[in-house]
């Protein structure tokens, strides 16, 4: 087991470099943690029928249906279920299972800590959320079992219950646990490898530095009775590697260290302005800022780029669908501070944390918000309550070409 496929290629090259002469070498199977369950599952036989593994898209679709079924059954969540939340819920479900926690454990432990929910609105919302999660996850497990496929957790149950006719008899683990390595093994993976039928030898290869940490204690908890053996290096292993030749030309990739994210964004904005000016073009669609953790940059980037006069477009607006309820307060502040402008108004109406209704009590639909956004743009609306009142009054006159959906959204915004 290796961290990544790239690591397997490096290990393969090392084995080839240390091969003695032209003799043939039998290579092992290289697998990562993401491939472990499917590779093991492919080796067992279940009465001549092999259920296909679910894809992530199929699992998200099943969980989405399960969420709607849980709501229909009376487990109403304190928020609107959006696609971004479905993906976050699926990740949370997998995390529970991978840490050997059942849905009943999650519900019991969470609700047990929320005493006084009758007098605390926050605790009451968390209890509703917990009951919704538990109901949706139970329905999700039922639908996964009845849809004819298997996920990682169902594969694990089958692997422990059925022995493979030709199992892997020796597994070497060259990764750490998940707490210290993003490519490492979860507690449930160690449990699987300790109990899977047919496995005769399990080796865990670590360095002294890694073993000196908390991994030493945890690995004895997962694999009680494991024997510790120090591997002595051979003379060939002590040979220093050949030096890597440097390119004959100087590297042209700039590496810059910034004090914080705001300074990083400001420097990027200056670079964009300079590059656009040198190119003699005002087109900015050839510049991009790619970050690993998008959430800390989402709101800061808007303000920094606006103050720098650099228009921007964000292609991953997912965080708003999965961040805490404080995002609703941020949207309200942005709406007011922008003098009720068009873009903050549309973002506010689309928020999954708030529920807007028209005069008849019907919820505002996504089509109404889109129509309102388009109508405000065509009217060159720049903000201001007085300007909004005049627009709504003009749109309601007979002969107006503005759609009823846009008028409905404007009336909600006006209220």
Low-pLDDT stretches are 317-323
Strand content: under 5%
> Mean pLDDT across all residues, rounded?
82
Tally of individual domains: 4
Number of helical elements:
18
Q: Largest beta sheet, briefly?
A: 2 strands, parallel
User: Whole-number radius of gyration?
Assistant: 29 Å
Instruction: Give the CA-based shape.
Output: globular
Major sheet strand order: 1-2
What's the order of the H and E elements? HHHHHHHEHEHHHHHHHHHH
The N- and C-terminal alpha carbons lie at a distance of 60 Å
Q: How many β-strands, per DSSP?
A: 2
- DSSP helix fraction: 40-55%
Which structural category fits the helices and strands?
A: mainly alpha
Structure description:
With 415 residues, the chain is mainly alpha-helical. The protein folds into four domains: 5-50 and 157-238, no CATH class; 56-148, no CATH class; 246-315, no CATH class; 317-415, no CATH class. The protein is 52% helix and 2% strand. It is built from 18 helices and two strands. A two-stranded parallel sheet has the order 1-2. Helix 3 (56-72) packs across helix 4 (83-98), helix 5 runs antiparallel to helix 6 and helix 14 packs antiparallel against helix 15. Mean pLDDT is 82; it is low at 317-323.
């Amino acid at each position: 087991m290796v961290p990544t496929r790239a690591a397997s290629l490096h290990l393969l090259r090392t084995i080839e470099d240390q091969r003695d002469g032209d003799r043939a070498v039998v290579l092992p199977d290289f697998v990562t943690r993401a491939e472990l369950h499917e590779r093991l599952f492919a080796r067992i036989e279940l009465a001549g029928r092999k259920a296909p593994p679910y894809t992530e898209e199929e699992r998200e679709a099943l969980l989405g249906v399960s969420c709607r079924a849980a709501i229909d059954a009376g487990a109403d969540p304190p928020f609107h279920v959006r696609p971004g939340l479905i993906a976050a819920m699926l990740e949370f479900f997998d995390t529970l299972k991978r840490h050997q926690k059942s849905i009943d454990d999650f519900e019991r432990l969470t609700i047990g800590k929320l005493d006084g929910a009758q007098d605390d609105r926050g605790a009451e919302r968390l209890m509703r959320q917990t009951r919704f999660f538990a109901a949706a996850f139970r329905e999700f497990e039922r639908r996964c079992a009845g849809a004819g496929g298997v996920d990682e957790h169902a594969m694990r149950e089958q692997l422990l219950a059925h022995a493979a006719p030709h199992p892997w008899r020796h597994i070497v683990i060259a990764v750490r646990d998940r707490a210290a390595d993003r490519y490492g093994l979860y507690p449930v993976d160690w449990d699987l490898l300790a109990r899977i039928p047919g496995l005769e030898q399990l080796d865990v290869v670590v360095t002294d530095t890694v073993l000196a940490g908390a991994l030493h204690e945890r690995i004895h908890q997962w694999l009680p009775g494991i024997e510790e053996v120090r591997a002595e290096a051979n003379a060939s292993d002590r040979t220093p590697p050949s030096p890597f030749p440097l390119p004959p030309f100087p590297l042209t990739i700039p590496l810059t260290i910034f004090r914080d994210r705001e300074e990083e964004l400001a420097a990027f904005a200056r670079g964009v302005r300079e590059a656009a000016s040198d190119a003699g073009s005002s087109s900015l669609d050839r510049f991009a800022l790619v970050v690993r953790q998008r959430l800390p940059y989402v709101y800061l980037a808007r303000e920094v780029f606006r103050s720098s006069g650099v228009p921007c477009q964000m292609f991953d607006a997912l965080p708003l669908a999965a961040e805490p309820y404080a995002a609703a307060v941020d949207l309200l502040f942005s709406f007011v501070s922008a003098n009720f402008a068009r873009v903050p108004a549309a973002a506010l109406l689309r928020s999954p944390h708030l529920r807007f209704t028209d005069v008849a009590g019907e919820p505002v639909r996504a089509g109404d918000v889109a129509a309102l956004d388009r109508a405000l743009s065509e009217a060159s609306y720049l903000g201001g309550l007085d300007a909004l009142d005049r627009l709504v009054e003009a749109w309601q006159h007979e002969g107006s070409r503005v759609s009823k959906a846009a008028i409905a959204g404007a009336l909600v915004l006006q209220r």
